[in-house]
Amino acid sequence: xxxxxxxxxxxxxxxxxxxxxxxxxxxxxxxxxxxxxxxxxxxxxxxxxxxxxxxxxxxxxxxxxxxxxxxxxxxxxxxxxxxxxxxxxxxxxxxxxxxxxxxxxxxxxxxxxxxxxxxxxxxxxxxxxxxxxxxxxxxxxxxxxxxxxxxxxxxxxxxxxxxxxxxxxxxxxxxxxxxxxxxxxxxxxxxxxxxxxxxxxxxxxxxxxxxxxxxxxxxxxxxxxxxxxxxxxxxxxxxxxxxxxxxxxxxxxxxxxxxxxxxxxxxxxxxxxxxxxxxxxxxxxxxxxxxxxxxxxxxxxxxxxxxxxxxxxxxxxxxxxxxxxxxxxxxxxxxxxxxxxxxxxxxxxxxxxxxxxxxxxxxxxxxxxxxxxxxxxxxxxxxxxxxxxxxxxxxxxxxxxxxxxxxxxxxxxxxxxxxxxxxxxxxxxxxxxxxxxxxxxxxxxxxxxxxxxxxxxxxxxxxxxxxxxxxxxxxxxxxxxxxxxxxxxxxxxxxxxxxxxxxxxxxxxxxxxxxxxxxxxxxxxxxxxxxxxxxxxxxxxxxxxxxxxxxxxxxxxxxxxxxxxxxxxxxxxxxxxxxxxxxxxxxxxxxxxxxxxxxxxxxxxxxxxxxxxxxxxxxxxxxxxxxxxxxxxxxxxxxxxxxxxxxxxxxxxxxxxxxxxxxxxxxxxxxxxxxxxxxxxxxxxxxxxxxxxxxxxxxxxxxxxxxx
Length: 708
Fold this sequence. Notes:
The protein is of the alpha+beta class. It contains 26 helices and 23 strands. The protein folds into four domains: about 5-15 and about 195-230 and about 235-425, 7-stranded beta/alpha barrel (Alpha-Beta Barrel); about 60-190, no CATH class; about 435-525; about 535-705, Sandwich (Immunoglobulin-like). The strands form four sheets. Strands 12, 15, 16, 17, 18, 21, 22 and 23 form an eight-stranded antiparallel beta sheet that branches. The radius of gyration is 27 Å and the shape is globular.
């Protein structure tokens, strides 16, 4: 039996975080991932001789690596980390205390006593009290934030990193300076390592268009209606295929300059394709392109009812195309982090062996983010990747290949039609359709028209060999997908205001470069300024121990919250007040926590109970008897008991409500209210009027980590 060709593509991407007006880099994620992931992934692959895989690189990310390497980045966060803790300004202290816990707490804070202590003292207040932290506290936090972003190989190979991890506290400015010097050297080696490994034939390097734009939307925002006919489009029509072509050409040219002139395959940003886009890729010399199986399913007359049809190459306009296996790719990105490394690698190999039986000699592309998921894995994913690579090479039914190797000897099947869409839901709704996203497209179209008309600058129609004028570079960066990703309701981040500001700054830079007055609307956020909210959603899936005790500060750290005091309550008798509800979920339960001011069992008496009324598609009631330690879930209309769950009433009240009977859908808020009863008499309820609406996104809550 011919082996199944396994083509792994690790996509490495960060947008350009530099403010084009001030020249400052406002977010540090390129720096941090360069230390923790970009080179580390290559070193892990090199540990297993015979591995073959493809790394997809984004030019704007590579540009930032160059700036960090030559010291010109001006990174606000890293500069704050480097500054002597004795002379930090109040603003810098607030930045450090607000942002330097931006790591996966379970993996990178909780295991370390000093970092854990600092997190506990920091608390959850939106604006921390910097006066409660001494100079040594701040210095230790600076170093721990940097250490948290060190990868497996640095921790194993660097005596300095080993020493600091063991020391744990009372760090010195000299030690911090040495660590930053090590990180600068590590970042400076990344690009050369990619080039050497490709020259040695160990990896293939593919590329994404220059600034990671959604190419089909650059060709025409109306393309969104091919995938979503009823979508609300921006008032202005953005239709500039020439911009899409320039993004592709510049991406290919940039990587050829930095890594050698080779035929490059392309992962279009977010796997977004259309027939027009693929024609452009073919005309600009891309060697191949990739997208998601959902696009292939919509392109084939019979869809993918026969799964064997997924495991082969196709072509459109003469360009070879491959399509990712969604489930297995997403298992790496979103599922296996919660498993032991050996079990996860074994499971993936077993799944691949099933495909090998189904499609012997076929090709299965596994395409996913190559940097953001690892912070949730044990030891930055190293044990999992090592076990996976070794297992793949040891199994005769599987063959690791680069995409170029996979396509050699395989004849692509021509497609008569290619559906438009991306890897996310096979559409473009993440980047267009919401009022905020549509406003951004309108402003982009207006800025492009105003500035190019005023200057007479045109998009070049061929390779001139001359550097592009600054005004076009600002335009290309403004067209990047990341600004649109954080508009709307699909995703959330504490840095959404910075992404909003960066998009508007790129448009502002267009006007400044053109010598035009900057329109006043560019100084106003597109995304509404955050107000103090009564409800905050969870930051991650988590599973607390239901024991009624505050056993661990980190147990509920990822929880969402609802300010019950702010929502108002109805009371008919004196009782213990609840001021805050904590909530969250994993794949089996919705978890609720209440912190009463008095002992709840004594307050309610033997006949007392709590009812939690929940409703979205179905009306449910969770009945809690604190004295008996029981939680039962009922259909509110029929009274039928549907399930039971654990409950514990001690210092706090913790309960787990079975998820399946709630029939929740990702993106649909969970309506919830809390009612206290003595016998048949309701004594209190929260909120006083109507239910709370708690955001619920299911497993999609994990996907936002991809942008960090």
